[in-house]
User: Fold this.
Amino acid sequence: MTDEKIKKVSIVVSRGSLEGVYPGLIMANGARMEGMEANLFFTFFGLYAVLDKYMDNIKIATVGNPAMRVPDAKGFPLPTLLGALPGMSAFATWMMNKTMDKLDIPPVREFIEMISAAGGKLYACKATVDMFDLTMDDFCPEVDKVLTVGEFYEMSAGAQIIFT
Amino acid sequence: MATKNIAGVDVNVNEEGYLTDHSQWTREIGEAIAKEEGIELTESHWKVMEFLQKEVKENGALPTIRRLTKSGVVDTKTLYQLFPDGPMKKASKIAGLEKPASCV
Assistant:
C-alpha cells in the first residue's frame, strides 16, 4: 500500500520576524513546486509580511533567541544584552539576506509575488485586521481577501494545516 | 538501475523515471516522456528545457525557479502553466535531467 500524496496545504504565518516569516513562505512555494494547492493565512504579527508599507523591513529577532550565534551559525552565542544593541537586528538581517540571496531565496516582497504568480493564494486574518485597524489598502496586491477563522477552515477542507 | 524503452530506445532510468545518463537523451525521448506526463510540447516548453540543459552543462546543477525566471526565458506564471503539477520536476524529467534537489 502506498501512502496518499498530500494534495493541498494551508499554512498559517503567525510571526513577524524574518525567521518567523520565511519557513511559511518556503513551505508554501515548495508546495506549489510539488504541484500542491497552497493557501497562506497571515495572522497576528505575521501580517507584516503582507503589509505593503512594512514587508520590506522584516528583521531577525536578535533578542530572546538562545540559538542565535555570531558571526555565523557555528560562531559564539550572542548574549541577549548585545542583541539588544541598536543596529544589531538590522546587521544580522543584512548578513542573512545576503546568504539567502546567494541561495536564490528571494526577499519577502519578491517571494510573495513569486508564490502568487505560482498560483498560491494569500489571505489575511480578520481578527487581526480588526485589531490592528487595517483595510485592504494596507496590503500588498497579492493578498486575495480577508478571511474569518471559519472561512479559513472551510477553504482548508481536505488540506493539511501547518502553523508556523 | 532500470532500463526503459522510450521512443524505441533503451535508456537508463531511476525508479521515478528520470534518465540517469543525459547522453542517452534525444528530442524524441523528450517528446515521449512529455506525452506520458500529459504535456504537449510547444516552442515555449523547449525554451525552458534548453535553458535547464544549458545550465546543467555549464554549472553542473539545475537552476532554481528564480534563476530561470530572472533569465528572461519564462515568467513564473507561464512556467506553472506550461508544466502544471510541479514545473521543475516535469521540465527536468522531460529534458532528461536529474530530479531537482532545491528547496526554492
